[in-house]
Design a protein that fits this description.
This protein is of the alpha/beta class. Helix content is 36%, strand content 14%. The strands form three sheets. The protein has a seven-stranded mixed sheet, with helices on both faces. Strands 9-10-13-12 form a four-stranded antiparallel sheet, covered by helices on one side. Strand 9 and strand 10 form a beta hairpin. The longest helix has 24 residues. It is globular and about 60 Å long. The relative contact order is 0.16. Bound molecules: pyridoxal-5'-phosphate. The site of pyridoxal-5'-phosphate (PLP) has 12 residues, from helix 3.
Amino acid sequence: MSRFFAGNLINLVPYTPGEQPKNAGELIKLNTNESPFAPSSFIKKAICEGEQIENLRLYPDPTCANFINELAKNYNVKSENVTVGNGSDEILAFCFAAFCESGAAFADITYGFYSVFADLYNIKKQIIPLKQNFSIDIKDYKNISATVFIANPNAPTGLALSTQEVEALVLQNENRLIIIDEAYVDFGAQSAVQLTKQYDNLLVVGTFSKSRSLAGARIGYAIANEDIINDLNKIKFSFNPYNLNRLSLIAGVNSLLDKDYFNNCCSEIIKTREYTKKKFSEMGFSVTNSMANFIFVSPPKLAKNLSAENYFNALRQKNIIVRHFNLPRISDYVRITVGTKQQMQTLLQVNNDIINEYK
Ligand SMILES: *Cc1c(COP(=O)(O)O)cnc(C)c1O
């Protein structure tokens, strides 16, 4: 640390992204919930056939108007109800900067970035423990006046709230903002987007990183009442007006235009996830009912000494890379991204070998 670093940030612990290995080609990479499928072919066409590369000498549209109009159409809302960010992480950062004067409330087990953003912006945290089975009981939020952040489906458990439950949270207190992070919603959970038309204390955040195969393009969006969107834009234009670059704007628009491809990719992941969950259960793993593009599993008790950490390392030795969080309550679990059916079959084969070694 230099002697110039701000005193109030000395104890800041940054977010730890999943590893992006150099030799990715030799590995089955199931550690960061990326899509195993290429982005829509519309994107390559749009970027390669136009003057897009030449146009990189020009700043992008700071209002992102084309992209926002396409998002509005896609989600059946008005353009005034949408803004976009450099990944949904940036939007979440804007939310912490804009809406958390009376603190931020979130689960003990959830997306790790919420806590980091709260610390970065010096925001008071209220941690609401999940139930024993990792579910959220919305009654636990009844008397919370801080801004609530919920990943739905939650990470890394994959468990989802219904739209009715989200609505009940919103109705608990009209003077409290509920932020629903729908990073994984396209894999079968219910979206709260349509509720934003009815309630001005609900903000839905989403990303193109998972279901749209565009993690490398850094595209996120927010949908809410117009006043909330204006507040977010105020932060954006005070921080980085050109937060989406030209190529990402084109990628975003064209991903939305290719609806069939998007729907096919999502159904394929859902199908493969259900297959994988079933096979893991049959092998004796504890498996949560994940509605995301990952499964969350704990190794079979009959495999003595096969802790989650040992399982993680054993997979790694066989060139399969997953995620283990050495954190209270979930250290017995690993999170595994749903890849292609073939990748999952390799994984299941390797599971057999590992379990036999540890029996
Ligand atoms: C992956 C993820 C994000 C971040 O998405 P980006 O758009 O890539 O920044 C946000 N929230 C949750 C819960 C995620 O899992």
